[in-house]
Design brief:
It is built from 29 helices and 18 strands. By secondary structure, the protein is an alpha/beta fold. It has three domains: 288 residues, 2-enoyl-CoA Hydratase, Chain A, domain 1 (Alpha-Beta Complex), CATH 3.90.226.10; 181 residues, NAD(P)-binding Rossmann-like Domain (Rossmann fold); 214 residues, N-(1-d-carboxylethyl)-l-norvaline Dehydrogenase, domain 2. A hairpin with an 8-residue loop joins strand 14 and strand 15.
Length: 741
Amino acid sequence: MAYQNFTVETDSDGIAVVTWDMPEKSMNVIDLSVMADLDKIIDETTADESVEGVVVTSAKDAFSAGADLSMLETILGEFQTLKASNPERAAKALFENAGRLNLIYRKLETSGKPWVAALNGTTMGGGLELALACHGRIAANNPKTKLALPEVKVGLFPGAGGTQRVPRLIHTQEALQFLLQGKNFDPKKAKTVGLIHDVVPPDELVAKAKQMILDGLSPVQPWDQKGFKLPGGKVYSPAGFQLFPPANAIYRRETQDNYPGARAIMKCVYEGLLVPFDTAIRIESRYFSQVLQTTEAKHMIRSLFMSMQALNKGARRPAGVPVTDIKKVGILGGGGFMGAGIGYVTAKSGIEVVLLDRDDEAAAKGKAHAVGLEDQAISKKRSSAEKKEALLSRITTTTDYASLTDCDLVIEAVFEDSEVKKGVTVEAAKHMKADALFASNTSTIPITSLAANFPEETRFIGIHFFSPVDRMMLTEIIMGENTGDTALATALDYVTAIKKTPIVVNDTRGFYINRCVLRYMSEAYNMLIEGVPPAMIENAAKMGGMPVGPLALNDETAIDLSQKILKQTVRDMGEGAVDPRHIELIDTMVEKHDRKGRKNGKGFYDYPEKPVKKLLWSKLKTLYPQQKADDLSVQTLIDRFHATIALEATRCIEEGVVTDVREADVGSILGFGFAPFTGGTLSYIDGMGTKAFVELLEKLAVDYGDHFKPTKMLLEMAKTDQLFYNRFPPDNKGGNKKKAA
């Protein structure tokens, strides 16, 4: 029989090889058509007496990328439509849809015939759950192969048996870590812990899978056999009592209970291990249907999957501009921390790099940085001596601007000083080829003002990296007033080449990300000055989903840099542009106490020698009279952090700095970790409704200052409770022209 997504061939031994190969897709994903095919294949191979067993594999480089999340959006859309007229029927339909794949996989493993998953490449999400439902699992010894259940990272959880089969195959503690962290296992690790049975050479994969069946593989899963014992012990046992209480505590510490998907994992594993398997998967389906309905899941899927995919695929790239093959990149200030980091990720992507600095010693530091990162990667088995040597061979250090003559792109990453930047820009321009792009890595200085130092402003753009460059996935591309479409397209081609996610914004002081970050840190300054205990400031931020407290973040970015930014802002915009209390606080930290942040071992925190962890500076609480912690509302502190950042995001939309709502959300999460469970700054507002957000702002403005006053656009939107994604529907037409809000 013909199938839309699979071929089935049965050999002379009676083994049916099911090959997954979705037409017109680069990777296999699970959608409604795949589920329909699988259902038929299971029925037909079960009924066919000539079939002794089944091997399922893939014709593509990877086995499967998991579920097609757009399918879930369709299911939810149908649920919402039906819910309006018949809530009970809608809930039942959603439960049935949520559990459909689970029932298909259960039919597979109870078919009475052995199935073996032959995993030829990366296997994620529902694809791995298919493999777990098979009686045998082997993987090709491919260094690029990863096995994972990463659904928690987009607000969901494995809902096709993953929360039940994993803790029945491996120890419960390992299972919880795998599920809650969305961890990647390579094939060897997966075999070691017991998720798969064997790792074999790629050219032997299907033959070995067939041999498992010929050798008498049981068609009954361990949990369906009498006397089965859980690898981690029963829930109500000494082992269970030692595991679940601390596991719950760790879960709370790591998530602050902000993620319904993660909470559901804890519940599914705990409840599911108390009951028979068929009941357990119904429990899982119940929680999956509940999580699907949450605002957190809806917005995380939209921002961290749909929007991020679109941006990574060039949604903002101008149409009609040929792709630029960037072969060589020059970096001014290549010996500094940022310049060295940019050089490293560029060389790692296969592009030649020239690190230019004021002297040989400074330039050499840039290459030494790459050596250190590669040595670290080798120690963690993420690189090799051969890869390190190849990477370093692509990096050249120099003090000679003439080395830039054949560079396709030159990135300036010198000190955050407009005069210093002017000097290196003018000198570099003398040596660059006519069509090369010049980019500044400035974090705050307007690109248009810097572009005035370059002979052709259409070829000048901002590419703002985040520290540490090798770990941060976001780049912020800034358009000057005269930046051309070719420059934007080339910058996006470069960002794609180095495997970062780009957002494109228009020119303003601080651009988008730093404007939001500065609001975050500024509100922490306000709290310090008000006498909110420093530990409470940091903990409230983390309880609100921020990965790093604002004081710790300020230490990482450097307090003396904050001092420079404040003073530069006063010089450029006047004294009224900065709260004088903030200048006094930062001056006190830097000038009176020499506390510049992590870089000199003392900032808002002290940094003792390892293994002692950093701790808040004990005298910080003496700078201002302290309020009693019991008199303060933690939720209000959280609201202040969320609201001040989200309000700044709306200002950026209103001013035309950000012109695509997806970039506001994705940028806020990847750039500084804005509460991922909200889906980002604008999704945070949409999640509560514009009317409720304005009411919150108005209350905060009365209690804590005019900087919380809602903008004109927000007040207008609140009248009809208009959402950002409705007012500014995203498109993929490219370009980044300013448009009215």
